[in-house]
Amino acid sequence: AQSVAQPEDQVNVAEGNPLTVKCTYSVSGNPYLFWYVQYPNRGLQFLLKYITGDNLVKGSYGFEAEFNKSQTSFHLKKPSALVSDSALYFCAVRDRDSSYKLIFGSGTRLLVRP
Amino acid sequence: EAQVTQNPRYLITVTGKKLTVTCSQNMNHEYMSWYRQDPGLGLRQIYYSMNVEVTDKGDVPEGYKVSRKEKRNFPLILESPSPNQTSLYFCASSPLGGGKTQYFGPGTRLLVL
Predict the structure, then answer these.
(1) Cβ partners under 8 Å of residue A79, min gap 6
(2) C-alpha–C-alpha distance, residues B32 and B88, integer Å
(3) pLDDT category, A41, cuts 50, 70, 90?
(4) Which residues are within 8 A (CB) of A45 and not within 5 positions of it... i.e. 6 or more apart?
(5) Can you say whether residue A84 is alpha, beta or left, with left for phi > 0 and alpha for psi between -120 and 50 degrees?
(6) How far apart are CA B35 and CA B43, in angstroms?
């Protein structure tokens, strides 16, 4: 069955330090990969996606993600965290060969302390 | 402004009282979808539509209905809501085509008593 795993319910990091939010997936073939962010009482905002090409994808607000095919991972990173980055982050995948359904991970809450 | 809108944003209702959550997009997207978000489960797809008059079930369709009479609108109907449908609901839309980004509405928080 297709699935997405975000192994950490919460990630804590100090402002100014680098952050990583982990995501691994189990989908056949070469899926499309996405990261979304959810701020309190807001909808999901698109951060970045991997379609093809360069394994390092750059997105909004200074975030980037690295696609690793052999490890089936798509970890979200940022070199220097801001307090305003504190939010709920979702990794999602979409099978290229089937419907447009996004399969979401359970979400990781990022807490950046001042 | 390109956006997906949902109404209402918050709703408290009682078991069995029919309700409709509206979703509208102004981006001329063919694809629209409904998801529900529950703690620890992420988002799960309820129904989706590839175009006008074309709808299909997602992973958790039980207790829900949808319609797509116009391209811009994709209402979610709960004919007889039950407490296990208490959740946060999101509508999303995207163009068709490989790798297109889905854009989400602000969410509707539903409480069924």
Answers:
(1) A18, A62
(2) 17
(3) confident
(4) A36, A37, A38, A39, A60, B104
(5) alpha
(6) 6
Residue A98 pLDDT > 70 = no
Across the interface, whether the CB atoms of B33 and A4 are under 8 A apart is answered: no
Per-residue pLDDT of chain B (113 residues; tens, 9 = 90+): 889 999 999 999 999 999 999 999 999 999 999 999 998 888 999 999 999 999 999 999 999 999 999 999 999 999 999 999 999 999 999 998 878 899 999 999 999 99
Shortest Cα–Cα distance, A10 to chain B (Å): 12
Q: CA-CA-CA-CA torsion for A65, A69, A72, A76, nearest 10 degrees?
A: 0
Q: Which of B79, B52, B66 is nearest to B22 (CA)?
A: B66
B34: nearest CA partner in chain A: A101
Q: Closest to A100 (Cβ–Cβ): which among B31, B90, B106?
A: B31
User: Each residue of B75-101: pLDDT tens digit?
Assistant: 999 999 999 999 999 999 999 887 889
Min distance B60 CA to chain A CA atoms (Å): 12
